[in-house]
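If your schedule permits, I should be very grateful for your opinion on a structural question. The matter concerns a single protein, recorded as an amino acid sequence and a row of backbone structure tokens. Could you please explain, in whatever detail you think fit, how the structure tokens follow from the sequence? I set the record out below, with my sincere thanks for your time.

——
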Amino acid sequence: MRGSVGPAVPQLWPGVVIAYGVNSAQSAMMNSAEWKNDPRNPNAKSGGH
């Protein structure tokens, strides 16, 4: 049995790039002026908690 992960890396890197891009876009949208004070935003400043 071979224990090398080398052949899997070329197949996985596009998914890592897409996940990073989606995460960056989502973070930018959550911090936009439109969603900054929305109660559904986990980063919103809440007064009661």
